[in-house]
Amino acid sequence: MSTVQTNKVLYNMSKTIAVLGAGTMGNGIAHVFAMHGYTVHLADLSARQLQKAMSVISHNLDRMVRKERITSDDKVRALVNIHTFEKVAPAVEHAYLVIEAITENEQLKTNIFKDLNQMAPERAILASNTSSISITRLAREVTFPERVIGMHFMNPVPVMKLVEVIRGYQTSDEVADQVLDLCADIEKIAVEVNDYPGFISNRILMPMINEAIYALFEGVSTVDAIDDIMKLGMAHPMGPLELADFIGLDVCLSILDVLYEGFGNPKYAPCPLLVNMVTAGKNGRKSGEGFYTYPPDEEPYVSIQFNRPG
Ligand code: CAA
Q: Is the minimum distance from the CB of 302 to ligand 1 under 6 angstroms?
């Protein structure tokens, strides 16, 4: 076990991880590692976002206490394990693993990987939680691309068992094995895939969501009927339109664009209704409206009316 003494803390490097980005995915990842005894450095440029993330984590740990999955002492221990940072450099300097979970934007992610190449320890594993951006391309920013890998967590992170582990073209076996061990240590199930557009999860999920939007766009049926059919008929926990709102319509559109451009195949072309909704700022649950409207403290209701074919 390698340790580093600083002015304040003796770091156990193999148990120190940094999470960059304190949004929905970042705070879920921090929650899970902290609950499993890791020291988590959670970084975000916005102090407000960090504050919000800590209150979301506390709320989600409370759910687990209520369900008797963890004790209140476990909750306190998990919260104490999380340290917040408004800058990347001090967050990553003693990290064994860095997980980038910032906005799904290739330019921003590329810049972060350039920074990590300078700021993170030379042997640290550099992971991205990207849902579709090429790991091989992000690895081009790093002197030793074999240490770059994808760790694609699913939302809500504390609930979903899967981590899709994406091996870039140059990811080493040693790094992949260490990431598989880490996933097991936080009680997630890792499944390995290679680095092609959309990996496996979104290559299969997004065409289904897009097809559901086309069915609505073409007037085949209503929002709630489409969702009911997939929930009741296929045992999906959420219908595809509800799930698209949950993921974020902007995120769905950007993943479909990656598939469309990456494969050059028109079957991935995003439905014009999705494009219009995102252009209008209707990004789903996080914006208060998508296929459903989400009034605070009330049940969601369908926002898009269906015209019966005449
Ligand atoms: N943290 C901790 N626990 C949470 C939680 C959170 N953020 N959100 C929900 N839970 C827990 C609840 O406490 C509850 O626990 P019990 O089973 O012990 O009762 C359980 O999860 C179910 O929650 P609810 O009863 O509140 O609600 P639900 O039954 O409607 O389930 C859901 C909610 C888990 C989100 C479920 O609807 C679901 O599984 N939906 C599908 C989610 C999915 O497909 N995620 C993947 C999206 S794709 C992605 O993330 C990747 C990408 O690249 C786009």
A: no
